[in-house]
Amino acid sequence: MDMDMDMSKQQQQQEAGAASNNNKQRAVAAAAHVLAVAAVVLVVVWCVHFRGGVALRSVQNKQLIFNLHPVLMVLGPIVLGGEAILSYRSLLLVPRAARKKAHMALHAAGLAAGVLGVYAVFKFHVESGIPNLYSLHSWVGIAAISLYAAQWAAGFLAFFFPGASPPARRRALLPWHAVAGVLVFALAVATAQLGFLEKLTFLQGPPLRLPKYGAEAMLVNFTALVVLLLGVAVVLATLNGTTRSSSYSAIV
């Protein structure tokens, strides 16, 4: 009798701990959503208000072409990619088949935005007579978008494509897919940090000599900080054991 009572108390404690853990992870996921909106707003304000706007084609002001790059790279692999990672946590009332589609669609949109952002910066360099792929930011960025594309293609073929891998193989691949997704997302966030630092360094040098403590410099630094916190929030919400197990079952 005493043993049964002890087991019941232990089970209740485990259930209470799991519920508390779930609540904490939902709070972290909610914080990630807020940070995602803030990141997009800040990068748009920077590129439109301080840098003059965005354009895919511009004859007189080539910087407008470049300005598309930070907007699309934050919006794509980081914000949409982060939302795709969190989709299983945020859409708990949605059927798992719909969550699976949302996950793939958000990642596809993030990849499309990222590819267009890479195209914009190459276009800007070519039309401005600037060499391509000379910085650490560009090297890591090409690696990040390439891995993002490979990760999406592998996930589509393994878990979504009609007649995909048998269940046993999907279960074996799923932990690797999840870990790879988080690593690629972290690489995208790191690439953005390098990009903010590189661009601000250029702006603070000749000929512009942007004030180091001016409004634009503070905005760029704060935007980079928000993007970093967004990355941390997404990773923390994803690494939770309960979240991970529920996501695995939803995908498979």
Automatic annotation (TrEMBL):
Keyword Glycoprotein appears in the UniProt entry: no
Gene3D superfamilies with a match to the protein in the record: 1.20.120.1770
TM stretches of this protein: 27-51, 71-92, 104-122, 142-161, 173-197, 217-239
Record keywords: Electron transport, Heme, Iron, Membrane, Metal-binding, Oxidoreductase, Transmembrane, Transmembrane helix, Transport
GO CC annotation, single: membrane
GO molecular function, one term: metal ion binding
Task performed by this protein: Two-heme-containing cytochrome. Catalyzes ascorbate-dependent trans-membrane electron transfer by utilizing a concerted H(+)/e(-) transfer mechanism.
PANTHER family, A to Z: CYTOCHROME B561-RELATED (PTHR10106), OS08G0101700 PROTEIN (PTHR10106:SF10)
Protein name: Cytochrome b561 domain-containing protein
